[in-house]
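Protein details
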Amino acid sequence: MSPFQTFIGKVQAEILTPIITLLTLGAFLIFLWGIVEFIAGATNEEKRAAGQQHMIWGIIGLVIIFGANAIVSLLKATVGAT
């Protein structure tokens, strides 16, 4: 294995994986908070709208995070890093 492949593998394992995990957790918590707001404000249209926006932003965040993770995996597969 070349030094570049080793470097890519270590960067992914030591830096990108923990960052992606934390961002995923944050986006999921925003989504859950939106659900709580939506249910708690069932009688108030403004609170329901705010909860719905949080759910949408949480889903958008998750899609972006999983897309970035897919790009990193594709990069690793392209250069042959393990």
Remarks:
- The first helix runs from residue 3 to 40.
- The mean pLDDT is 89.
- The two ends are 9 Å apart (CA to CA).
